[in-house]
């Protein structure tokens, strides 16, 4: 991976060279300021003022040139529009073809302009990060907030692609008109499907989407999935992902995600009844549910390592192990054996391939589709979480076939075993193992007319406004050459051990992982003990518990729609984070049974507040975590996705253990006994969040 200064020089359009951001000058200024402050020749306030003026001048030059170029494009479109009007009275195919190519040429020039804006936006973001890191100062927050929110903001012109839509609309409309050779003019406004009739329009739309800094539902779900990717993948890396991409293989990964979540939650409504039948206390359901999470702590590591070499083999292994685990879970009923039951659930946990699913999306899905694939991962998980309990309520039957019992306790195991068998056959037939990274790639031409190696492919789903923690994230890994460029080869090298990964975690990252631990703990306590608590206080049937849990699961996507489309655009993510933690705390407090008789409205409302708040918190927390975690944890075995998975899994293990241990106090005391640790952990996370972010501001 080349340093940004070199990338900027390589990708400059020669005739526009003097309008690009002067990254080299700004970098030298940062170094000079640092030396002057160290020797006391300059104070920090003067430095901030001087550097702000320099950036303002750089941005103004970029914006003025951009507006000039947009004006030229508009003039060309106006001339072409006149020619188009005159051509409507004729039927000259050659002139129609020439006019169509002229419109495409305007589109190509607009695309060049968008790449110009992209590389300048990246340079601005890089230099702001360098300044924050060098001076240990939150200059980025000050600069972006004061400039972006001003009514005469020029910074907003860079990132909000003002006027591009009008140019794209004109090109798209005229190309649609020219496609009709019979003279029946079909408006794109009457038929929106014709809005993007040409590849150049799709290319422009993709470039505009990369420049967009607004948070929408799709982006929110993508971050919620926590699939890591490099800050700016090189063209060769993205081309490798294009070669690896196979829709059916991606679909099989998403189905694996869905089935595993169904497998996790399908036993929750009946786990207490199953343990009673086998002669154990109802609270042993915590051990039954949690044994799967215990095994997942270890399976996540070896699946993450295995995905370095293959994707098909770990998925096949996962399916086989889950098939065996579910058969053992079902057979435990007739064998009257708690050990067989627990071994079956342990096998299910050993088959957790979520690390492979995330890794496949990160490595084998092209950048333009990665956000949709990540959103699909989250949606599949949410759907599985809802479908698991919903399926359990359908198994209200009891019959035998050749001494094998089929009832509400065993049918979850048999149904999931059959599902994994069908999936295994589908996987073996349809999955395509992607080529590995050591395969040589042939340079290809990009749609800009430049070689792929020279085209600028930048991911701008990450906002310009960097979190304050970002200035700390690479302190131990960023190295600089003599000319001051970052040594990306070193700073992007994957870590090789869990200890090395832990050392890269800054205090803010540790707090985010602790918040993730807290929310998973609270959710697991709520879900895993629901059948015991509702049976004791309200005498709910298995069907009632299953419907209740399914309704909770169905809230996931609507909540993410609201947060992704509205809340995250109205408030800063840290504000949403803290507010969500407080709401989880309120939900836990409402769940306690104190003095007055416990009622269904109290339990259901408290559960909804806790669960929905935890879902909001999970999305915002992972979104923040994906921005502040070290780039060295974006790939390799010990990546950020593995760390977050381990934190969440460990929380589930401890929560399920808490339920089982609290069972010794009796079912009447189970609720309050399990809520007390949740309350303590939630309060601790709120204090840690406030302390960490207050110290950074």
Summarize the structure in words.
The chain has 697 residues and is mainly alpha-helical. Helices cover 70% and strands 1% of the residues. The protein has 28 helices and two strands. It has helices at residues 4-11, 23-38, 44-87, 93-135, 139-148, 155-159, 164-179, 199-211, 217-225, 235-244, 247-265, 271-277, 285-306, 312-335, 338-350, 354-364, 367-392, 411-430, 488-491, 498-503, 507-528, 530-537, 542-554, 556-570, 573-591, 600-628, 640-662, 667-696, and strands at 398-401, 404-407. Strands 1-2 form a two-stranded antiparallel sheet. It is globular and about 85 Å long. The chain starts with a helix and ends with a helix. The model is unreliable at 439-491 (pLDDT under 50). The chain crosses the membrane at residues 250-268, 280-303, 315-332, 338-356, 377-399, 411-431, 513-539, 545-564, 576-596, 670-694. This is INNER MEMBRANE TRANSPORT PROTEIN YAJR. Its main location: membrane. One of its GO terms (cellular component) is membrane. It is a multi-pass membrane protein.
List the helices and strands and how they pair.
Elements (H helix, E strand, L loop, with lengths): L3 H8 L11 H16 L5 H44 L5 H43 L3 H10 L6 H5 L4 H16 L19 H13 L5 H9 L9 H10 L2 H19 L5 H7 L7 H22 L5 H24 L2 H13 L3 H11 L2 H26 L5 E4 L2 E4 L3 H20 L57 H4 L6 H6 L3 H22 L1 H8 L4 H13 L1 H15 L2 H19 L8 H29 L11 H23 L4 H30 L1
Antiparallel strand pairs: 1-2
């Amino acid at each position: 991976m080349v340093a940004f200064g070199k990338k900027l020089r390589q990708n400059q359009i020669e005739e526009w060279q003097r309008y690009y951001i002067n990254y080299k000058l700004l970098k030298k200024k940062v170094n000079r300021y640092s030396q002057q402050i160290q020797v006391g020749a300059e104070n920090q306030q003067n430095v901030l003022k001087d550097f702000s003026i320099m950036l303002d001048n750089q941005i103004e030059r970029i914006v003025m040139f951009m507006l000039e170029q947009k004006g030229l494009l508009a003039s060309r479109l106006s001339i072409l529009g006149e020619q188009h009007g005159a051509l409507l009275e004729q039927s000259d195919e050659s002139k129609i073809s020439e006019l169509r190519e002229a419109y495409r040429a305007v589109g190509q020039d607009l695309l060049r302009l968008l790449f110009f804006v992209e590389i300048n936006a990246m340079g601005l973001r890089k230099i702001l990060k360098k300044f924050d890191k060098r001076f240990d100062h939150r200059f980025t927050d000050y600069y972006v907030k004061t400039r972006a929110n001003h009514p005469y903001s020029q910074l907003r012109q860079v990132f909000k692609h003002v006027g591009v839509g009008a140019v794209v609309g004109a090109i798209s409309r005229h190309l649609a008109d020219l496609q009709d050779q019979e003279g029946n003019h079909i408006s794109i406004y009457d038929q929106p499907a014709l809005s993007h009739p040409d590849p150049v329009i799709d290319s422009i739309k993709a470039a505009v989407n990369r420049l967009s800094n607004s948070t929408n539902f799709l982006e929110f779900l993508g971050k919620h999935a926590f699939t890591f990717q490099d800050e700016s993948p090189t063209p060769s890396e993205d081309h490798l992902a294009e070669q690896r991409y196979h829709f059916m293989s991606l679909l099989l990964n998403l189905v694996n995600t869905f089935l595993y979540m169904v497998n996790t939650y399908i036993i929750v409504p009946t786990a207490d009844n199953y343990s009673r039948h086998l002669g154990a206390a109802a609270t042993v359901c915590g051990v039954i549910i949690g044994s799967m999470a215990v095994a997942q702590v270890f399976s996540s590591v070896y699946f993450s390592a295995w995905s370095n070499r293959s994707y098909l083999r770990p998925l096949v292994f996962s399916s086989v192990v889950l098939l065996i685990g579910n058969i053992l879970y079902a057979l435990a009923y007739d064998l009257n054996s708690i050990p067989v039951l627990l071994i079956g659930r342990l096998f299910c946990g050993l088959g957790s391939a979520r690390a492979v699913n995330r890794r496949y999306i990160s490595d084998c899905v092209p950048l333009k589709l990665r956000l949709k694939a990540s959103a699909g991962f989250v949606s599949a998980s949410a759907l599985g979480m809802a479908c698991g309990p919903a399926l359990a309520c359908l198994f209200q039957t009891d019959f035998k076939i050749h001494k094998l019992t089929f009832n509400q306790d065993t049918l979850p195991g048999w149904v999931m075993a059959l599902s994994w068998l069908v999936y295994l056959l589908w996987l073996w037939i349809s999955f395509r193992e992607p080529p590995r990274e050591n395969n040589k790639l042939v340079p290809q031409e990009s749609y800009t007319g430049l070689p792929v190696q020279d085209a600028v492919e930048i991911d701008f789903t990450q906002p310009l406004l960097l979190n304050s923690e970002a200035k700390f994230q690479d302190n131990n890994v960023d190295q600089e050459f003599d000319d001051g460029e970052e040594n990306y080869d070193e700073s992007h090298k994957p870590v090789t051990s869990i200890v090395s990964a832990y050392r890269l975690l800054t205090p803010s990252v540790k707090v985010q992982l602790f918040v993730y631990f807290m929310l998973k703990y609270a959710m697991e306590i709520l879900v895993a003990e629901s059948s015991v608590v509702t049976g004791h206080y309200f005498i709910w049937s298995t069907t009632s518990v299953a419907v209740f849990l399914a309704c909770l699961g169905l809230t996931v996507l609507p909540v993410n729609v609201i947060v992704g489309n509205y809340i995250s655009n109205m408030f800063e993510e840290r504000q949403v984070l803290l507010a969500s933690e407080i709401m989880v705390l309120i939900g836990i407090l409402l769940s306690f049974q104190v003095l007055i008789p416990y009622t269904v409205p109290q339990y259901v409302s408290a559960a909804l507040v806790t669960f929905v708040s935890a879902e909001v918190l999970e999305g915002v927390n992972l979104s923040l975590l994906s921005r502040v975690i070290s780039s060295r944890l974006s790939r390799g075995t010990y990546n950020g996705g593995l760390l977050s998975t381990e934190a969440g899994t460990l929380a589930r293990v401890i929560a399920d253990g808490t339920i089982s241990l609290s069972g010794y106090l009796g079912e009447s005391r189970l609720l309050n006994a399990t809520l007390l640790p949740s309350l303590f952990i939630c309060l601790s996370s709120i204090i840690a969040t406030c302390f960490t972010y207050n110290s950074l501001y």
